[in-house]
Amino acid sequence: MRILVGGMGHESNTLNPIITGENDFVITRGEDMLNPNWSTQSSAAGIIATLKAAGCEIVPVLQARAVPNGVVSAAFYQKTKAEFLQRVRDALAAGPIDGVCLPLHGSMKVENLGCAEGDLVGSIRELLPEIPFTAALDMHGTITPELLRTVNGFAGYKTAPHIDCAETGALAAGMLLEALKTGKRLYTAYRRVPMLIAGEKSESEAEPMRSLIEACRQAEKRPGIRAASFLLGFPWADNEHNAVSALVTSLADAGPADPAITAAENAAEELAAAFWQRRKDFVFRSEYYDSEGAIKAAYQAVLEKKEHPVFVSDSGDNPTAGAAGDATDLLEKIVATMDTVDKLPTPLLYSGFYDAPAAAACIKAGVGATIDTTLGGNWDTVNGKKIPLRLEVLKIVRDFGPYKSDLVFAAHRNIRFTITSKHIGFGDEKLLPALGVNAADYCLVAVKLGYLEPCFRSIAKRAIMATSRGCSNEVLETIPYKKVRRPLYPLDRDMEL
Ligand SMILES: [Zn+2]
Question: How far is the centre of ligand 1, averaged over its atoms, from the C-alpha of 152 (Å)?
């Protein structure tokens, strides 16, 4: 069997003014996708491993991915889509294709197009009518009518932070293989739950997500059902389709009265109702305050309670949620209290800022130099200002990671900053070690992140979340949405389903 694999993955934050373009994406083409070292924790890796184990011939097209950021450039999307479709035509010229399994995110937005996965899969479907088609999606995917019309079977991540990407890919590929081997058809039942949830209220280890995901696992044990998923939508995209989705895919062999179809419909109905019933139980897991309150609580924890290290998440400007990475709400509160910062027993570590001009200026000056520059406010000019700082350059790393960002470690009085030349995430466990920095050595660590990644959580004596201003503002009720379909909880609190 020949199975087509490939896709584009992006989580696009429509509040962020940055346009995500060619330089932000990494594209893996054709056979390079089959390299066993490629993206091992991804849904693509799970799909490929499953198909390989089943002895399929994999037709790898291309996979484009970028760090969450602002919407994707229309020119880049159209060019990449055209290349994708040409590769599908080339593969078809070499022989028939039996099935399609795509690793996608589900919340990619493109300039002038909006939700883009439906457009991509629709164009692929035109070239490959009839054959079974499955997709692995991120938990923050958004379901659109085009996606539902085209894709026969869906599997979504069950964990946040996402640690089951490969398993989700394996589930999507497994459903496809079963459909092909048995000749049965994949059927997906869908229910919209009119809700949006801040990312930091929906960790899968905490209630109510833990129980709701367990309900999905139980549903998957019912006869005929192959995958049950909640997709939460993406709260920082102002889009008419944004909402929570309950999706249940089953394998059916008869007509509309097939019990597997009824089972999927019933399970989707029950899961959606269970989710809605728990809507008021979604709360922040860690202690949280606005930026001023958060930094005050952190000072108190360090200076009076001698806690070390204390983490403060600058959650409103989290680049891994697509925020700009240069908002300065929290930094302004820190700079306003420099006398306290100077009294801290170790420097305050701030990781970090996406500021290409500041990184370039530091690199030009070189290690050991001191320069007057600014941090922040290049992109997010609503929540960020250019904050003047005198920086001593301590360390420089060039071309870090898959996105080849330069990294700078610099000091301003008793603060140490990491500064990146590219828009990358600050939860990357390799970033600080690359600069020779151990977060555990610092009494207070501010990080542009929401919930702490395991590398930070494992060392944090205390984790405080700043509900700071920025493009990943966790207080959804304060975001001026214009396009989302109302009523929508929690924007409309008294609504009924
Ligand atoms: Zn996600």
Answer: 22
- Answer for the pair 449, 203: CB distance below 8 angstroms, yes or no: no
Residues with CB under 5 A from ligand 1 (ion): 138, 140
CA angle 12, 43, 236 (to 5 degrees): 20
Helical (H) or strand (E) element with 260: helix 259-277
CA of 254 to the centre of ligand 1 (A): 35
Of the candidates 328, 314, 466, the one whose C-alpha atom is nearest the C-alpha of residue 387 is 328
User: 């085209």: which residue's tokens?
Assistant: 150
Q: How far is the CA of 268 from the centre of ligand 1 (A)?
A: 21
Torsion 192-196-200-206 (CA) sign: negative
Distance CA 45, CA 39 (A): 6
pLDDT < 50 positions in the chain = none
Q: Which two tokens stand for residue 364?
A: 């030009």
Spacing, Cα 69 to ligand 1 middle (Å):
13
**CB-based contacts of 98, cutoff 8 Å, min separation 6:** 1, 2, 3, 131, 180
Q: Which two tokens stand for residue 83?
A: 């290349």
Taking the centre of ligand 1 as the mean of its atom positions, its distance from the CA of residue 95, in whole angstroms, is: 36
Q: 280 Cβ partners below 8 Å, 6+ apart?
A: none
In whole angstroms, give the CA distance from residue 359 to residue 174: 46
140 CA distance to ligand 1 middle (Å): 4
**Residues sharing a CB contact under 8 Å with residue 401, sequence separation 6 or more, in sequence order:** 424, 428, 430, 431
Arithmetic mean of pLDDT over the chain? 96
Q: How far is the CA of 19 from the centre of ligand 1 (A)?
A: 20
Q: What DSSP string runs through 447-483?
A: ES-SSPPHHHHTT-SEEEEE--SSTT-S-GGGS--SS
**Residue 323 Cα to ligand 1 middle (Å):** 14
Query: What is the tens place of the pLDDT at every residue in 302-346?
Result: 999 999 999 999 999 999 999 999 999 999 999 999 999 999 999
Query: What pLDDT, on the 0 to 100 scale, is given for residue 497?
Result: 73
Q: Sort strands 133-137 and 153-156 into parallel, antiparallel or unpaired.
A: parallel
Look at residue 335 and give its three-state secondary structure: helix
* CA 162 to ligand 1 centroid distance, Å: 7
Neighbour-count burial for 392-410, b at 16+ CB within 10 Å, e otherwise: bbbbbbeebbebebbbbbb
Rounded to the nearest whole angstrom, what is the distance from the C-alpha of residue 391 to the centroid of ligand 1?
Answer: 35
Distance 8 CA to ligand 1 centre (A): 14
Predicted TM-score of the model (pTM): 0.94
